[in-house]
């Protein structure tokens, strides 16, 4: 059974290997993926269109991923787009900070591909509901 539409995911991840692996995994799931390496590139991309979901790496070269999550959640145009933060930090305080900043989900890297799939599916289902 096919999804109603192909979801567009904006992936903002500084680490080239993690970005390529994550983009590949998301494309295997049938999503269209726009992958960029910095917060500024992500903001420029978002000025042109809105994705169905955004996946943001924690340590971007030009800004903290958590600050970008906060910025997007407080922007009327992007506040309705679900956001997942990728981070190597598994501490509860870091997870809480991400949710307080406006993240809809949090995934510790390196991640289990099935967990990425499950969390993203849940994010996209929330949007469609």
β-sheet strand percentage:
15-25%
Strand order of the largest sheet: 2-1-3-4-5
The general outline is globular
Q: Fraction of residues in helices?
A: 40-55%
The CATH homologous superfamily is named: Response regulator
Gyration radius, to the nearest Å? 13 Å
Which class of secondary structure composition applies to the elements? Answer: alpha/beta
Mean pLDDT: 94
> Element order, helices and strands?
EHEHEHEHEH
What number of domains?
1
Q: What is the top-level CATH class? A: Alpha Beta
Can you put this structure into words, describing what you see?
This is Transcriptional regulatory protein CseB. Keywords: Phosphoprotein. With 129 residues, the protein is of the alpha/beta class. It has a single domain, classed as Response regulator (Rossmann fold, 3-Layer(aba) Sandwich). It contains five helices and five strands. The protein has a five-stranded parallel sheet with strand order 2-1-3-4-5, with helices on both faces. Strand 4, helix 4 and strand 5 form a beta-alpha-beta unit. Helix 3 packs parallel to helix 4. The longest helix is centred in the last third of the chain and has 16 residues. It is globular and about 35 Å long. The model has no long low-confidence stretch (mean pLDDT 94).
């Amino acid at each position: 059974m096919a999804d109603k539409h192909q979801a567009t995911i904006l992936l903002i991840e500084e680490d080239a290997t993690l970005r390529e692996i994550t983009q590949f995994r998301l494309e295997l799931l049938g999503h269209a993926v726009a992958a960029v390496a910095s917060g500024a590139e992500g903001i420029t991309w978002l000025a042109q269109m809105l994705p169905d979901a955004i996946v943001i790496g924690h340590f971007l070269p030009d800004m903290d991923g958590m600050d970008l999550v906060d910025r997007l959640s407080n922007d009327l145009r992007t506040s309705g787009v679900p956001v997942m933060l990728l981070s190597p930090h598994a501490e509860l305080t870091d997870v809480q900070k991400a949710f307080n900043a406006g993240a809809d989900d949090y995934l510790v890297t390196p991640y289990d591909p099935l967990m990425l799939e499950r969390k993203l599916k849940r994010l996209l289902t929330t949007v469609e509901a």
